[in-house]
Write a structure and sequence with these properties.
- Strands 1-2-3-4-5-6-7-8-9-10-11-12-13 form a 13-stranded mixed beta barrel.
- Strand 10 and strand 11 form a beta hairpin.
- With 259 residues, the protein is mainly β.
Length: 259
């Protein structure tokens, strides 16, 4: 995604290659930080869609807004994201997410983070999900061509399932979880970068209740005005709501154009 800095505007158009009915509960916000952004405000917009007719009738619209405010020691990040899909006139995806994160630099390699998130996902049967957490972030190494970052947080999660005909309809859960992640980047060529992120989120009171996210992203910048991102996500939930599959995969690409 390209940045919309003060004094300029840009637009990011996303083109969907292929996606499952995504129901991931882990959001890789670390990949959304622009570590090279100038001090001050920045923002980016992603819009995407898929329209098919004939033997397969499908309409998808999705979008996200990411804002960042950076100073010498502090960074604020805000995210709003939504996606809706219809197939043969029936809604098959409906989800909205908002996430806010504050990061304070404590030393050259250590930062502290505090975050809050709200989520609605009709097809994961989530009527309401909210979480609040905090923890350290450590840059293990950061070179021009490679980098590796580790983070861990303790968070409290509250979920409420929608009231439908399933056995667990309307159930509510409030649980503590440990959220840890490892973020690595590798510069493959002058204009191609690989970013790999893995999240693990076990429940504190029952570690076998585990959520995992693995995200692989190739970012290609053919020229300073255009960025192409190709990503593959794999998410796993060992204890999903009834009728929701434990494993999801998603493949997508976005094209960023700075105007």
């Amino acid at each position: 995604m390209k940045q919309l800095k003060t004094g300029g505007w840009g637009l990011v158009l996303g083109v969907l290659l292929h996606a499952s009915a995504a129901s991931a509960q882990i959001v890789n916000v670390q990949a959304l930080f622009d570590e090279k952004a100038e001090l001050g405000p920045a923002a980016s917009i992603e819009l995407g869609g898929d329209w098919r007719t004939g033997s397969t009738r499908l309409f998808t619209v999705r979008g996200s807004l990411v804002g960042q405010l950076r100073s010498e020691r502090n960074v604020w990040l805000g995210i709003i994201r939504g996606e809706y899909s219809f197939a043969s006139g029936e809604r098959i995806v409906s989800q909205v997410l908002e996430h806010v994160r504050y990061r304070r630099k404590l030393s050259d390699s250590v930062s502290g983070e505090v975050f809050a998130q709200h989520e609605y996902n009709e097809f994961r049967r989530l009527q309401f999900r909210a979480l609040l957490g905090a923890g350290p972030r450590v840059v293990l190494f950061n070179e021009d061509a490679t980098g590796l970052t580790f983070g861990v947080a303790l968070m409290v999660e509250h979920e409420r399932l929608r009231k439908d005909g399933e056995a667990d309809a309307g159930d509510r859960y409030t649980d503590p979880r440990v959220s840890s992640y490892l973020l690595g980047r590798l510069k493959l060529m002058e204009n191609i970068q690989l970013v790999e992120t893995v999240y693990f989120q076990p429940r504190v009171t029952r570690p076998s209740d585990l959520r995992v996210l693995n995200e692989t992203l190739f970012a290609v910048t053919p020229n300073p005005r255009v960025t192409v991102g190709i990503g593959f996500n794999l998410t796993y939930d060992s204890a999903p709501p009834a009728t929701v599959p434990p494993l999801d995969t998603q493949l997508r690409t976005t094209v960023g154009v700075k105007l």
